[in-house]
Write a structure and sequence with these properties.
Layout lengths: L7 H14 L3 H8 L1 H8 L4 H12 L8 H10 L4 E2 H7 L4 H7 L3 E3 L7 E4 L2 E8 L4 E8 L3 H4 L13 H9 L5 E7 L5 H6 L3 E8 L2 H14 L6 E5 L11 E6 L10 H10 L14 H9 L4 E16 L4 H12 L2 E10 L1 H11 L8 H17 L2 E12 L9 E5 L9 H15 L3 H6 L3 E2 L3 E6 L9 E6 L6 E4 L1 H9 L6 H12 L3 H17 L3 E2 L1
Parallel strand pairs: 6-7, 6-9, 7-8, 9-10, 11-13
Antiparallel strand pairs: 1-3, 2-3, 4-5, 10-12, 11-12, 14-18, 15-16, 16-17
Helix pairs in contact: 1-11, 2-3, 3-4, 5-6, 12-16, 13-14, 15-16, 19-20, 20-21
Length: about 525
């Protein structure tokens, strides 16, 4: 099936029709109800089909609402009468939707059937700029087709795309590169705060979807340029202030018998298979992205990396950072064992043990063989933030694991943490002691006491925003954080606490100043 066509006049008509139709995230939830809408988000259609049938039963069968027609057609893969789609899209009409490549028709009569040939769904997100509300076209998914995905399948905005959009720093900037744009979702987010966006992909089909989505959702004059090519090749020799990428990082067997088995059983999916062994693609991207970063420029990527026997992941991935010569902050968010990893990605393409037992078994075994060949014990997933220093040496090398919940959008928190790191890097302990700091508004204090005790055994400073960190604090540190309201300098507060706790001021400063640095870095305290 061909991707949609970007006819500017028709796309503008479609945009106006969609605005008027109530076919947005909130409108779909009002139609289906929160339970059915949430189930549909989990790729479970039955509750939504029941809710839609109930909604249609409450209105004359010949007059479904526009949102009911569009949800049944594009979200649930149903067949609708031509007259119903003409009413739902009065400016575009069924004929215009067919010319755009969105639907196929059985005839020209009012009661003739119309079916969707692409997935066109409302999208809503909150990033560091604010609320975003669009419509995104992509290939029909397994929920509609009932089978495995084609190898050139173009995904819509899934969980990984949403995560990347929310963790990206969104300060106003010049040039942004969206590497591996897919349907174009990261480019759309970037277009809200950048002067110029370049989006690349190895898939011409993906670029066609991205062009359609850009035309449907961006204002006239937005500088969004699409380029075909692999990884960084289309932008060689250029510099960007921000690079974002959800690259094809999936660790897929490619060599030897294991590679042949997976290729025969599943094929290579363009959206996720970069054609490299193990986690080489992520490593090479970390090592190479600095070539296209302007001084002070930032790259934010999703990726995964192998945990190999006898080698901590922090050492292995940390060596990539060292070789890259960039500031680096890597947060590992999830860890899967080899079997879980194989199951996840075989199932991701629409292959199931029930539908295709032979293909499932062949791919599963090949994945396990491939991991065993490199002594892989687990695979970590996470967020990668890299920066080219404005000048001077690298100052940031941070690798950590945080598998708990986070407060999205995380992009503003990451920006504050990076700014805090830079502020600290320019100040020695004397300058820090002279600073007047303020405790962030989201910080709370938890105290744990033995019943009957006058003083707490444990004090936890808890962050409500960002990564939601909890820091166990000594009584002096908790008191210092409580006193940081911008009136007194850190040194003055330390001096007062030394008198209160009856300890030498220099000793207390030696204890507290390193802790204050960590709290500034993590957003508990700010200037």
């Amino acid at each position: 099936m061909l991707p949609p066509v970007t006819d500017r006049a028709l796309v503008d008509s479609l945009h106006d029709d969609l605005v008027a139709s109530d076919y947005d995230v909130d409108g779909v939830e009002r139609l289906l109800g929160p339970v059915a809408a949430a189930a549909l988000h989990r790729e479970q259609s039955l509750p939504a089909r029941r809710a839609l049938a109930a909604a249609l039963g409450a209105t004359p069968s010949s007059r479904p609402s526009p949102v009911a027609t569009l949800a049944g057609l594009f979200l649930l893969g149903g067949v609708v009468p031509r007259a119903a789609l003409d009413r739902a899209l009065p400016r575009t009409g069924t004929a215009g939707a067919e010319r755009l490549g969105l639907v196929a028709t059985q005839g020209t009569g009012a009661d003739d059937d119309v079916c969707a040939v692409v997935d066109l769904r409302p999208y809503s997100s909150v990033d560091a700029v604010g609320d975003a509300s669009w419509w995104l076209a992509s290939d029909l998914g397994e929920l509609v087709t009932g089978g495995r995905l084609a190898t050139d399948h173009v995904l819509g905005a899934g969980g990984a795309s949403l995560t990347l959009a929310q963790v990206t720093v969104r300060s106003s900037t010049g040039r942004v590169l969206d590497l591996g744009t897919g349907c174009g979702i990261q480019a759309l987010h970037a277009a809200r705060h950048a002067q110029h966006v370049v989006a690349t992909d190895i898939s011409r089909r993906a670029l066609a979807f991205a062009a359609f989505n850009a035309a449907l959702n961006t204002r006239a004059g937005t500088e969004l340029e699409l380029r075909h090519g692999s990884m960084l090749e289309p932008v060689a020799g250029e510099l960007f202030d921000l690079v974002v990428s959800n690259p094809p990082f999936v660790i897929t067997p490619h060599a030897g018998a294991a590679g042949r088995a997976v290729a025969d059983a599943l094929g290579d999916y363009e959206y996720r298979d970069g054609g490299r062994a193990g986690d080489d693609l992520v490593r090479d991207l970390i090592l190479g992205v600095g070539d296209v970063l302007a001084p002070g420029g930032t790259a934010q990527l999703l990726g995964n990396w192998e945990h190999r026997r006898g080698e901590p992941w922090t050492e292995r991935v940390g060596a990539w950072l060292d070789e890259a010569g960039l500031d680096g902050w890597i947060i590992q968010r999830e860890v899967l064992d080899p079997a879980e990893y194989a199951e996840t990605w075989i199932r991701d393409g629409g292959t199931t043990a029930d539908r295709e037992p032979d293909a499932w078994a062949a791919a599963y075994g090949a994945w396990l063989d491939d991991f065993e060949s490199r002594d892989v014990e687990a695979v970590g997933f996470g967020l990668v933030t890299l920066r080219r220093p404005l000048s001077g040496p690298v100052t940031l090398r941070r690798l950590e694991e945080h598998t708990g919940s986070v407060r999205q959008p995380l992009g503003a928190h990451i920006a504050r943490s990076l700014a805090g790191h830079d502020w600290l890097a320019a100040r020695d302990d004397a300058a820090l002691a002279a600073s007047r700091l303020v405790t962030a508004a989201d910080i709370t204090e938890e105290r744990y006491l033995t019943p009957g005790a006058a003083d707490p055994n444990i004090v936890i400073l808890r962050q409500g925003d960002g990564l939601g960190r909890g820091v166990q604090a000594s009584s002096p540190l908790a008191a210092l954080v409580g006193a940081c309201d911008g009136e007194l300098s850190v040194g003055q507060i330390v001096g007062a606490l030394a008198s209160l706790f009856d300890v030498p001021a220099d000793d207390l400063a030696a204890e507290l100043l390193p802790a204050v640095r960590r709290l500034v870095r993590d957003g508990f305290l700010a200037e």
